[in-house]
Design goal:
The structure is a single chain. By secondary structure, the chain is mostly helical. It has one domain. It is built from four helices and no strands. The longest helix has 27 residues.
C-alpha cells in the first residue's frame, strides 16, 4: 500500500508543469473536499435551531456586561 501511494505521488508530480503549482492544485482539492464533507455532516446531524442560534451569534452584538473593560477585550482580540 505504501508503495502504491508513493508511486501515485510521483506520477502526479511528474505530469505537473511545476511541482509547486501541482501541489497547490492538489491542496485546493483536498481542502475543498474536507470542507464540503464537514458541511454535509453538520447539515445532517445538527438541528436547525442550532444553525439559527449560530447565525444570530455572527450577526448580533452579543450580551456584554455593563462593567466590562473594553481595553482588556481589545487587548485579547489583538493578541489572538
Amino acid at each position: 500500500m505504501t508503495y502504491m501511494v508513493l508511486f501515485l505521488v510521483l506520477l502526479v508530480l511528474l505530469f505537473g508543469r511545476r511541482i509547486e503549482h501541482t501541489l497547490e492544485k492538489i491542496s485546493w482539492v483536498m481542502i475543498s473536499f474536507v470542507f464540503l464533507f464537514l458541511v454535509m455532516i453538520n447539515a445532517f446531524f445538527i438541528p436547525g435551531s442550532v444553525w439559527l442560534e449560530t447565525g444570530k451569534g455572527f450577526v448580533g452584538k452579543g450580551n456584554f456586561s455593563p462593567d466590562m473593560d473594553w481595553t482588556v477585550l481589545a487587548a485579547v482580540a489583538a493578541y489572538a
